[in-house]
Amino acid sequence: MALLEATDEQNELWYSNDPVEWQAALDKYDKAISLLAQMPGKQDLLSLDRWYHEELPEAVMARCQPHLEYKELLKVIKWMRAREYYKRSTGERNKGLIPENQGCFVETLSRYSFDKICNFDKSKELTITEKEEAIDFMTEIKGVGVVTASAILAMVCPSYYPYMSGEAVATVLGRPFRDELFSFTRYVKLQIRLRAKAFALNREESEASKQEWTPANIERAIWAIEHASTAPRLPRNSIKPARTPENRW
After folding, report:
1. Alpha helices in 140-173 (DSSP H)
2. How many Å apart are CA 162 and CA 194, to the nearest integer?
């Protein structure tokens, strides 16, 4: 995948604390998904995106012990690949690793991960250890790296975890060194900055926007203004990530 530099529009949005501007960007998400779904090989994106945001969280949380099933893991990865405009060069690495997982292995590790974040006291903050352990358990699943883990955790706990999309990384963190594109360290930085932005937006009072801002929907707003155009832009710079363990999907 070519990691895109943030557009001027994305940069302006990021430095704004106006909930109305952010709401306008988030409102473009469905249009952006529809446009991307018209591209070859992405015809399932509409149904996948609806499933990921609406059906999957409900199914996971309805279980006696919340967990992710193997077939759901495969479908999350399918959603990730469909929502990416450019393929990650590292994406093929876990294509062969995912089938090595046994269903019980995925269910057990995802349950351990969700236990850290699904049953906490809402009046308290998750500790750094709890947040990191949730990611650690998820990445113990073969072929699952920080990016895939972020997609799963953002679905379960959007108030803490954003999806680590290339668009969000480029806008919030800027261009990294080659071997740090999607590392755990950069994900922690992304998470902290998106949570701070969510706090700032929720603090602003506005009659025109009653949205509860989270790291997850802030990421969607950033992503949406990138892809809501009928003429997707070409990458300004192509950066091929180094193949390191931290850089897996």
Report:
1. 146-156, 166-172
2. 8
Q: How many Cβ atoms from other residues are within 10 Å of residue 93's Cβ?
A: 15
How many residues are recorded in the chain? 249
- Residue 64: partners with Cβ closer than 8 Å, 6 or more residues away: none
Q: Rounded CA gap, 147 and 135, in Å?
A: 10
Does pTM surpass 0.70?
Answer: yes
Q: How many angstroms separate the Cα of 98 from the Cα of each of 6, 20, 105, 154?
A: 31, 41, 11, 20
> Contact, 68 vs 115, CB < 8 A?
no
State how far Cα 76 lies from the chain centre: 11
Average pLDDT over residues 175-193: 79
Distance CA 246, CA 137 (A): 14
Segment 102-113, tens digit of pLDDT:
678 899 999 999
pLDDT tens-place string over residues 59-78: 999 999 999 999 999 999 99
Helix, coil or strand: residue 87: coil
